[in-house]
Amino acid sequence: MLIDSHCHIDGEQFDEDRDKVVQRAGEAGVAAMLNVGTGDPHSDDFRKAVAVAESYENVFAAVGVHPHDAKLYDGKAENHLIELVKSSDKVIAWGEIGLDFYYDHSPRVVQLDVFRRQIKIARELDLPIIIHSRDADDETVAILTEEFGVTDADNSIRVPGIMHCFGGTPHMAEALMKIGFLISFAGNVTFKKAENLRDAARVVPLDKLLIETDCPFLTPVPHRGKRNEPAFVAHTAAFLAKLYGISIEQLAAATTRNFMALIRIKAKVSAQ
Ligand SMILES: [Zn+2]
Ligand SMILES: [Zn+2]
Question: What residues contact 110, with CB distance under 8 A and at least 6 apart?
């Protein structure tokens, strides 16, 4: 049983064959997928992300404004997303939020401000956050450390969220795990030149590990070049199991358990 902890199957790339994509995921052993909404928070993009989760039993959703679109964030956008969270039990996380200083599609000061603002909202809603960080590792770690502090032995079960598509150094992974974050690897860990990602994966223990496709992007070997889809998370799972020297079943069990702990956060909140 595998989990694709970060996918974008609400995208138009899947409009033609979404049913089949979800079916193939099931056939590949993917028990659940977290569909992460992105786009303009003033459009219907996020409504569609939640609708896709509502359409399939094993698809969950996250809503939150990507750093690319931080410049579009305002009170109206925020209220729209909060309403979506409250509208469906399938919305289990807030994200993806964070910093992208590689593309700089939104001004950095705006990205920093909107990142903090969304962390605050997610905490008020008691939702885990999904972090996107590119070329902004120091700033990301600084903000998360400031907002959450580091965990101590008594507080080690706290899971503030997921660092998705990990692309940083082993040191960054360690810093994030100290705050309580799970570290999720995408298909690019299988790329020939990605020795840096494998170095980072080696410092992540099984109880902090997640796997994802980030589809339609970052298609893992041996499908590189094709559209990515949740079924292909099995290749990333097999690759990492080999890297860790464990069976794919052991890796699947650990990553599934870690993800289920996140889902339970929302289940607990909904029950209150
Ligand atoms: Zn991302
Ligand atoms: Zn993504």
Answer: 70, 71, 73
Compute the distance between CA of residue 236 and CA of residue 194 in angstroms, rounded to an integer.
13
Q: Ligand 2 centroid vs 217 CA: distance in angstroms?
A: 9
pLDDT at site 200: 98
Secondary structure of residue 224 in the 3-state scheme: coil
Q: Look at residue 161 in the predicted model and tell me its pLDDT.
A: 95
Cα–Cα distance, 210 to 4 (Å, whole number)? 8
pLDDT, residue 151, reads: 75
User: What is the Å distance from ligand 2's center to 7 Cα?
Assistant: 6
Rounded CA gap, 96 and 232, in Å?
A: 21
| Ligand closest to the CA atom of residue 166 | 1
CA of 86 to the centre of ligand 2 (A): 22
Closest-lying ligand to the alpha carbon of 132? 1
What is the distance between the alpha carbons of residues 190 and 206, in angstroms, rounded to a whole number?
18
Q: Which two tokens stand for residue 62?
A: 């996250």
Ion ligand 2 neighbours, Cβ < 5 Å: 214
pLDDT along the chain (272 residues), means of 10: 97 97 98 97 98 96 98 98 96 97 98 98 95 97 93 66 97 95 97 96 97 96 94 98 98 96 63 46
Ligand at shortest distance from the CA of 67: 1
**Can the peptide bond before residue 160 be classed as cis, meaning omega within 30 degrees of 0?**
no
268 Cα to the center of ligand 2, angstroms: 26
Strand residues in 71-160 grouped as ranges (E): 91-100, 129-134
Give Cα separations from 78 to 81, 112, 272 (angstroms): 5, 16, 23
Whether this prediction's pTM lies above 0.85 is answered by: yes
What is the 154 CA–ligand 2 centroid distance (Å)? 32
Pairing of strands 30-36, 59-63: parallel
